[in-house]
Amino acid sequence: MVSLLNLEGKVAVVTGATRGIGWATSQILAAHGSTLMLAGHSNRDLLDQRVEEIHSQFGVSVTGELFDVSDPDGVRDFYGRVNKLHKKIDILVNNAGILDDGLMGMISLKQYHNTFNTNVLGVVLNMQYASRLMSRNSTGSIVNISSIIGRFGNAGQVVYGGSKAAVIGITLSAAKELASKNIRVNAIAPGFIETDMVNQLPKEKYQERMASIKMGRIGTPEDVAKAVLFLASDLSNYISGQVIGVDGAMLI
Protein backbone atom coordinates (compact mmCIF):
# COMPACT_ATOMS: atom_id res chain seq x y z
CA MET A 1 0.00 0.00 0.00
CA VAL A 2 1.37 3.40 -1.02
CA SER A 3 1.72 5.80 1.90
CA LEU A 4 -0.69 8.73 1.86
CA LEU A 5 2.33 10.86 2.82
CA ASN A 6 4.13 9.90 -0.39
CA LEU A 7 4.64 13.06 -2.48
CA GLU A 8 6.57 11.47 -5.35
CA GLY A 9 5.47 12.93 -8.68
CA LYS A 10 4.11 16.07 -7.01
CA VAL A 11 5.49 19.54 -7.64
CA ALA A 12 5.65 21.93 -4.68
CA VAL A 13 6.38 25.66 -4.52
CA VAL A 14 7.56 27.08 -1.19
CA THR A 15 7.94 30.85 -0.78
CA GLY A 16 10.31 32.24 1.81
CA ALA A 17 12.04 28.89 1.47
CA THR A 18 15.57 29.58 2.69
CA ARG A 19 15.07 30.12 6.42
CA GLY A 20 12.94 29.12 9.39
CA ILE A 21 9.55 27.60 8.65
CA GLY A 22 10.09 27.77 4.88
CA TRP A 23 13.36 25.86 5.08
CA ALA A 24 11.96 23.21 7.43
CA THR A 25 8.97 22.83 5.11
CA SER A 26 11.18 22.47 2.05
CA GLN A 27 13.13 19.70 3.74
CA ILE A 28 10.12 17.71 4.90
CA LEU A 29 8.42 17.90 1.50
CA ALA A 30 11.65 16.75 -0.17
CA ALA A 31 12.01 13.92 2.36
CA HIS A 32 8.64 12.62 1.19
CA GLY A 33 9.60 12.76 -2.48
CA SER A 34 8.24 16.05 -3.76
CA THR A 35 9.84 17.93 -6.64
CA LEU A 36 10.57 21.42 -5.34
CA MET A 37 10.75 24.98 -6.56
CA LEU A 38 12.16 27.15 -3.79
CA ALA A 39 11.42 30.86 -3.84
CA GLY A 40 13.73 33.35 -2.16
CA HIS A 41 13.71 37.13 -2.09
CA SER A 42 17.23 38.56 -2.21
CA ASN A 43 20.03 36.19 -1.16
CA ARG A 44 21.14 34.24 -4.23
CA ASP A 45 24.06 32.56 -2.47
CA LEU A 46 21.87 31.21 0.33
CA LEU A 47 19.20 30.07 -2.14
CA ASP A 48 21.78 28.20 -4.22
CA GLN A 49 23.13 26.62 -1.04
CA ARG A 50 19.65 25.44 -0.05
CA VAL A 51 19.05 23.96 -3.49
CA GLU A 52 22.29 22.02 -3.26
CA GLU A 53 21.49 20.81 0.27
CA ILE A 54 18.06 19.52 -0.79
CA HIS A 55 19.42 17.79 -3.87
CA SER A 56 22.36 16.14 -2.10
CA GLN A 57 20.37 15.01 0.94
CA PHE A 58 17.14 13.85 -0.68
CA GLY A 59 17.97 13.35 -4.36
CA VAL A 60 14.83 15.07 -5.62
CA SER A 61 14.57 17.58 -8.46
CA VAL A 62 14.87 21.08 -7.00
CA THR A 63 15.14 24.58 -8.46
CA GLY A 64 15.62 27.95 -6.76
CA GLU A 65 14.23 31.27 -7.99
CA LEU A 66 14.63 34.81 -6.66
CA PHE A 67 11.66 37.16 -6.86
CA ASP A 68 9.53 39.51 -4.76
CA VAL A 69 6.20 37.85 -3.92
CA SER A 70 4.48 41.25 -4.00
CA ASP A 71 5.72 42.06 -7.53
CA PRO A 72 3.05 41.02 -10.06
CA ASP A 73 5.53 40.74 -12.92
CA GLY A 74 7.99 38.73 -10.85
CA VAL A 75 5.28 36.31 -9.71
CA ARG A 76 3.93 35.92 -13.25
CA ASP A 77 7.39 35.17 -14.61
CA PHE A 78 8.06 32.66 -11.84
CA TYR A 79 4.94 30.64 -12.61
CA GLY A 80 5.81 30.81 -16.28
CA ARG A 81 9.02 28.99 -15.36
CA VAL A 82 7.08 26.50 -13.22
CA ASN A 83 4.89 25.77 -16.22
CA LYS A 84 7.85 25.47 -18.56
CA LEU A 85 9.74 23.08 -16.28
CA HIS A 86 6.94 20.95 -14.86
CA LYS A 87 3.66 21.77 -16.68
CA LYS A 88 1.86 21.68 -13.33
CA ILE A 89 1.91 22.47 -9.63
CA ASP A 90 0.38 20.31 -6.89
CA ILE A 91 1.36 22.12 -3.69
CA LEU A 92 1.80 25.80 -2.85
CA VAL A 93 3.10 26.88 0.55
CA ASN A 94 2.68 30.63 0.99
CA ASN A 95 5.26 31.17 3.71
CA ALA A 96 7.02 34.43 2.74
CA GLY A 97 6.24 37.19 5.21
CA ILE A 98 7.65 40.12 7.15
CA LEU A 99 7.17 41.40 10.69
CA ASP A 100 7.41 45.13 11.37
CA ASP A 101 5.82 46.02 14.71
CA GLY A 102 4.59 49.46 15.66
CA LEU A 103 2.38 50.99 18.36
CA MET A 104 -0.77 52.86 17.44
CA GLY A 105 0.10 56.43 16.58
CA MET A 106 3.61 55.41 15.51
CA ILE A 107 2.78 53.30 12.45
CA SER A 108 4.19 54.70 9.21
CA LEU A 109 2.66 54.28 5.79
CA LYS A 110 5.85 52.53 4.73
CA GLN A 111 5.43 49.93 7.46
CA TYR A 112 1.81 49.40 6.49
CA HIS A 113 2.41 49.09 2.76
CA ASN A 114 5.49 46.88 3.06
CA THR A 115 3.75 44.49 5.44
CA PHE A 116 0.49 44.20 3.52
CA ASN A 117 2.21 44.01 0.15
CA THR A 118 4.28 41.01 1.25
CA ASN A 119 1.95 39.27 3.68
CA VAL A 120 -1.35 39.79 1.83
CA LEU A 121 -0.82 40.77 -1.80
CA GLY A 122 1.98 38.19 -2.06
CA VAL A 123 -0.38 35.44 -0.92
CA VAL A 124 -3.10 36.46 -3.38
CA LEU A 125 -0.74 36.74 -6.35
CA ASN A 126 0.81 33.33 -5.75
CA MET A 127 -2.59 31.72 -5.20
CA GLN A 128 -3.95 33.14 -8.42
CA TYR A 129 -1.20 31.75 -10.63
CA ALA A 130 -0.86 28.47 -8.74
CA SER A 131 -4.60 27.77 -8.82
CA ARG A 132 -4.66 28.25 -12.59
CA LEU A 133 -2.05 25.55 -13.01
CA MET A 134 -3.75 23.31 -10.46
CA SER A 135 -7.06 23.66 -12.27
CA ARG A 136 -5.65 21.87 -15.30
CA ASN A 137 -5.53 18.62 -13.34
CA SER A 138 -8.40 19.40 -10.97
CA THR A 139 -6.25 18.83 -7.91
CA GLY A 140 -3.99 20.75 -5.57
CA SER A 141 -3.30 21.91 -2.04
CA ILE A 142 -2.57 25.48 -0.99
CA VAL A 143 -1.23 26.09 2.53
CA ASN A 144 -1.06 29.69 3.72
CA ILE A 145 1.05 30.55 6.76
CA SER A 146 -0.83 32.96 9.00
CA SER A 147 -0.08 33.53 12.71
CA ILE A 148 -1.61 33.23 16.15
CA ILE A 149 -1.55 37.05 16.08
CA GLY A 150 -3.93 36.97 13.11
CA ARG A 151 -6.41 34.96 15.18
CA PHE A 152 -6.21 36.67 18.57
CA GLY A 153 -4.30 39.93 18.09
CA ASN A 154 -1.50 41.37 20.20
CA ALA A 155 -0.57 44.80 21.51
CA GLY A 156 1.89 46.59 19.26
CA GLN A 157 1.12 44.38 16.28
CA VAL A 158 -1.85 46.05 14.64
CA VAL A 159 -0.35 45.99 11.16
CA TYR A 160 1.19 42.52 11.36
CA GLY A 161 -1.91 41.08 13.04
CA GLY A 162 -4.14 42.70 10.45
CA SER A 163 -2.11 41.25 7.61
CA LYS A 164 -2.20 37.75 9.10
CA ALA A 165 -5.93 38.01 9.81
CA ALA A 166 -6.33 38.92 6.14
CA VAL A 167 -4.51 35.69 5.22
CA ILE A 168 -7.15 33.75 7.16
CA GLY A 169 -9.98 35.56 5.38
CA ILE A 170 -8.32 34.93 2.03
CA THR A 171 -7.95 31.26 2.89
CA LEU A 172 -11.59 30.77 3.88
CA SER A 173 -12.91 32.53 0.78
CA ALA A 174 -10.54 30.79 -1.63
CA ALA A 175 -11.41 27.40 -0.13
CA LYS A 176 -15.07 27.93 -1.03
CA GLU A 177 -14.23 29.23 -4.49
CA LEU A 178 -11.78 26.50 -5.45
CA ALA A 179 -13.48 23.47 -3.86
CA SER A 180 -15.36 22.63 -7.07
CA LYS A 181 -11.97 22.27 -8.78
CA ASN A 182 -10.75 19.89 -6.05
CA ILE A 183 -8.21 22.45 -4.88
CA ARG A 184 -7.91 22.56 -1.10
CA VAL A 185 -6.95 25.77 0.70
CA ASN A 186 -5.99 25.78 4.37
CA ALA A 187 -4.03 27.97 6.75
CA ILE A 188 -1.64 27.33 9.61
CA ALA A 189 -1.40 29.79 12.48
CA PRO A 190 1.94 29.27 14.23
CA GLY A 191 2.46 30.52 17.76
CA PHE A 192 5.85 31.30 19.27
CA ILE A 193 8.31 29.59 16.93
CA GLU A 194 12.13 29.58 17.10
CA THR A 195 12.99 31.68 14.04
CA ASP A 196 15.24 34.62 13.19
CA MET A 197 12.39 37.04 13.96
CA VAL A 198 11.89 35.59 17.44
CA ASN A 199 15.60 35.65 18.20
CA GLN A 200 15.56 39.43 17.78
CA LEU A 201 13.10 39.92 20.67
CA PRO A 202 14.29 41.59 23.88
CA LYS A 203 14.93 39.08 26.69
CA GLU A 204 11.92 40.25 28.72
CA LYS A 205 9.54 39.83 25.76
CA TYR A 206 10.97 36.40 25.01
CA GLN A 207 10.42 35.24 28.60
CA GLU A 208 6.92 36.71 28.63
CA ARG A 209 5.97 34.75 25.50
CA MET A 210 7.52 31.56 26.87
CA ALA A 211 5.47 31.85 30.06
CA SER A 212 2.25 31.91 28.01
CA ILE A 213 2.89 28.52 26.36
CA LYS A 214 1.09 25.77 28.27
CA MET A 215 3.21 23.00 26.74
CA GLY A 216 6.25 24.67 28.28
CA ARG A 217 8.52 24.94 25.26
CA ILE A 218 9.00 27.14 22.23
CA GLY A 219 7.85 25.69 18.94
CA THR A 220 10.27 24.71 16.21
CA PRO A 221 10.03 25.29 12.47
CA GLU A 222 9.79 21.50 12.16
CA ASP A 223 6.60 21.54 14.27
CA VAL A 224 4.99 23.80 11.69
CA ALA A 225 6.45 21.88 8.76
CA LYS A 226 4.80 18.67 9.96
CA ALA A 227 1.41 20.38 9.83
CA VAL A 228 2.20 21.63 6.32
CA LEU A 229 3.07 18.07 5.27
CA PHE A 230 -0.29 16.84 6.56
CA LEU A 231 -2.20 19.51 4.63
CA ALA A 232 -0.12 19.00 1.48
CA SER A 233 -0.55 15.23 1.47
CA ASP A 234 -3.47 12.95 0.66
CA LEU A 235 -4.02 12.43 4.38
CA SER A 236 -6.04 15.66 4.26
CA ASN A 237 -7.80 15.19 0.92
CA TYR A 238 -11.23 16.07 2.41
CA ILE A 239 -10.03 19.02 4.48
CA SER A 240 -10.34 22.59 3.22
CA GLY A 241 -11.08 26.00 4.64
CA GLN A 242 -9.46 25.23 8.01
CA VAL A 243 -7.06 27.17 10.22
CA ILE A 244 -4.78 24.92 12.26
CA GLY A 245 -3.02 26.45 15.24
CA VAL A 246 0.50 25.16 15.91
CA ASP A 247 1.14 26.95 19.18
CA GLY A 248 1.58 24.52 22.09
CA ALA A 249 -1.68 25.75 23.68
CA MET A 250 -0.31 29.28 23.85
CA LEU A 251 -2.51 31.92 25.50
CA ILE A 252 -2.32 35.40 24.02
Key features of this structure:
15% strand, alpha/beta, 252 residues, globular, Rossmann fold, 9 helices
How would you portray this structure in words?
The protein has a seven-stranded parallel β-sheet, sandwiched between helices. It is an alpha/beta fold and 252 residues long. The chain is 48% helix and 15% strand. It has one domain: 3-Layer(aba) Sandwich (Rossmann fold), CATH 3.40.50.
* CATH 2nd-level architecture: 3-Layer(aba) Sandwich
Helix percent band: 40-55%
Report how far the terminal alpha carbons are from each other.
43 Å
Number of helices: 9
The CATH topology assignment is Rossmann fold
CATH class: Alpha Beta
Low-confidence stretches: none
Describe, in short, the structure shown.
α4 links the parallel β4 and β5. Helix content is 48%, strand content 15%.
Can you lay out the helices and strands and say which pair or pack?
Elements: E1 11-15, H1 20-31, E2 35-40, H2 44-58, E3 62-66, H3 72-86, E4 91-94, H4 109-137, E5 140-145, H5 148-152, H6 158-178, E6 183-190, H7 196-199, H8 203-211, H9 221-232, E7 243-246
Parallel strand pairs: 1-2, 1-4, 2-3, 4-5, 5-6, 6-7
